[in-house]
C-alpha cells in the first residue's frame, strides 16, 4: 500500500516530507522506502512527528476492525487526541472496514467525527463509512493497485496455494485441508506466507501445527525479508495458478498476477474484496464442498476491472493532495 502511494506521489513531482512512527523494523523499512523518515513509536516520537506535520494521514489498511483486539482502536484514539491538541487535520486514504460492528464503538465514532475526509478502498466500505460519516466519504481504491499495475510476483502454473490467516480458529480445519490436498487439484501445492512474524493466528504458526506428513506435500513460499527494494521483494514470492486466501492483499496480488483466487471471508473486508473483484468466496475452510465448487468455477479477473482499480487509487491520491494543500493554505503554513 505504501509503495503504491509513493509511486503516485513521484508522479505528482511534489517535494513532500513524510514521517511514520513504527515500533520495530525501522532499518528494513528505510531500505524498502527511503522516501519516508522512520521514527520510533514512543508517545514523544508520535507527538513530535504530528507537531511538525501539516496533516495526519491514515494510509491504507483496515482501521475499523476488532479481529486482533483493541490495540488499533487505542492507537488511533491517541492519534486523534494528539491531532486535536495540535489542531492538525486527519485524513484516511484507501481504507476499509474490517468489522461493521467496529463503527459503533465510542472511540471509532470519535475518530470518524474528527476526520476531515475518507477515501474507502471498496464499495462496501464506502457505503458503511458514508452512513457513519455523512458528506465526507469518497469511493477510492486500495493503494496496492498502483504498485501491482506495474509489478507483481511471478505466476507458477499448475500449482495451487493456501494463504491462511485466522484470528478465529474455528474457520480453519486440518481435516478440510487434508481433503483438499487429497483432491490433487494441482500438480504442486504451496503454503504462502505473507506475515513474516510467527503470530498465533498467522501463516507460520499454522504451518507449525500441520502434521509432518501434510507439510511434506506443501512447499512454503515466503518473500525475501532481506530484499533491497519492492521489486526484489515481489519477485521472491511466487503466486500459484489457483489461490485460496483469507488474506486481503494476497488475493489482490493473485488477481493482478493472473491467478484464479477464492476468498475465505473471515471478516467484512474480505467480503468487500470478493465483491469488488467479482471472485468467489466461502465463509470457512471447513466448507469443502462449496470450496471445491468455487475452485472449479473460479476465473481470472479481467484486466479492465483491475486497471479501473489502479486508476481510481491514483485519482484518490490526487484528490487527497488537493484537500491537503487547501488545508495547509487555510492554516497559513
Write out key terms for the chains shown.
Rossmann fold; 2 domains; 6-stranded parallel beta sheet; 12 strands; globular
Fraction of residues in H or I helices: 40-55%
Q: What is the tally of helical segments?
A: 15
State the oligomer. single chain
What is the highest CATH level, the class of the largest domain? Answer: Alpha Beta
CATH topology of the largest domain: Rossmann fold
CATH architecture of the largest domain: 3-Layer(aba) Sandwich
Mean pLDDT: 93
Number of domains: 2
* Termini Cα gap: 28 Å
Kindly name the structural category.
alpha/beta
Low-confidence stretches: none
The SSE order reads: HEHEHEHEHEHEHEHEHHEHEHEHEHH
Total strand count, please? 12
Output the strand order for the largest sheet: 9-8-7-10-11-12
What share of residues are in beta strands? 15-25%
> Sheet with the most strands?
6 strands, parallel
Radius of gyration: 20 Å
Summarize this entry quickly.
The chain is α/β, with parallel strands linked by helices and 333 residues long. The protein has 15 helices and 12 strands.
Describe the structure.
The chain is of the alpha/beta class and 333 residues long. The chain has two domains: 2-140 and 309-330, Rossmann fold; 151-301, Rossmann fold. Helix content is 46%, strand content 17%. It has helices at 2-12, 26-32, 43-51, 71-86, 106-114, 123-132, 144-148, 174-182, 203-209, 212-216, 230-235, 248-257, 268-277, 288-297, 303-330, and strands at residues 18-21, 36-39, 56-59, 90-95, 117-120, 137-139, 155-163, 188-192, 219-221, 239-245, 260-264, 281-282. Strands 9-8-7-10-11-12 form a six-stranded parallel beta sheet, with helices on both faces. Strands 3-4-5-6 form a four-stranded parallel beta sheet. Strands 1-2 form a two-stranded parallel ribbon. The two termini are 28 Å apart. The mean pLDDT is 93.
Amino acid at each position: 500500500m505504501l509503495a503504491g502511494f509513493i509511486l503516485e506521489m513521484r508522479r505528482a513531482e511534489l517535494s513532500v516530507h513524510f514521517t511514520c512512527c513504527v515500533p520495530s523494523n525501522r532499518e528494513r523499512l528505510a531500505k524498502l522506502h527511503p522516501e519516508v523518515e522512520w521514527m520510533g513509536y514512543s508517545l514523544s516520537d508520535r507527538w513530535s512527528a504530528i507537531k511538525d506535520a501539516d496533516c495526519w494521514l491514515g494510509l491504507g489498511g483496515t482501521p475499523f476492525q476488532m479481529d486482533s483486539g483493541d490495540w488499533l482502536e487505542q492507537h488511533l484514539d491517541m492519534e486523534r487526541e494528539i491531532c486535536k491538541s495540535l489542531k492538525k487535520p486527519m485524513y484516511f486514504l484507501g481504507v476499509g472496514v474490517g468489522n461493521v460492528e467496529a463503527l459503533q464503538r465510542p472511540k471509532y465514532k470519535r475518530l470518524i467525527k474528527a476526520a476531515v475526509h475518507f477515501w474507502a478502498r471498496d464499495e462496501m466500505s464506502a457505503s458503511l463509512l458514508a452512513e457513519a460519516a455523512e458528506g465526507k466519504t469518497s469511493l477510492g481504491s486500495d493503494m496496492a493497485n498502483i504498485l501491482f499495475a506495474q509489478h507483481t510476483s511471478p505466476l507458477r502454473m499448475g500449482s495451487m496455494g493456501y494463504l491462511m490467516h485466522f484470528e478465529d480458529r474455528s474457520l480453519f480445519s486440518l481435516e478440510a485441508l487434508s481433503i483438499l490436498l487429497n483432491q490433487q487439484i494441482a500438480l504442486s501445492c504451496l503454503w504462502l506466507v505473507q506475515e513474516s512474524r510467527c503470530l498465533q493466528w498467522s501463516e507460520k504458526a499454522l504451518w507449525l501445527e500441520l502434521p509432518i506428513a501434510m507439510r511434506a506435500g506443501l512447499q512454503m513460499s515466503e518473500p525475501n525479508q532481506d530484499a533491497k527494494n519492492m521489486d526484489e521483494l515481489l519477485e521472491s514470492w511466487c503466486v500459484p495458478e489457483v489461490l485460496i486466501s483469507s488474506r486481503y492483499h494476497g488475493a489482490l496480488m493473485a488477481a493482478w498476477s493472473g491467478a484464479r483466487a477464492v476468498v475465505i471471508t473471515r471478516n467484512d473486508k474480505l467480503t468487500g474484496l470478493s465483491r469488488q473483484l467479482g471472485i468467489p468466496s466461502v465463509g470457512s475452510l471447513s466448507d469443502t464442498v462449496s470450496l471445491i465448487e468455487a475452485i472449479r468455477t473460479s476465473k481470472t479477473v479481467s484486466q479492465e476491472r483491475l486497471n479501473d482499480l489502479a486508476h481510481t487509487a491514483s485519482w484518490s491520491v490526487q484528490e487527497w493532495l488537493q484537500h491537503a494543500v487547501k488545508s495547509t493554505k487555510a492554516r497559513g503554513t
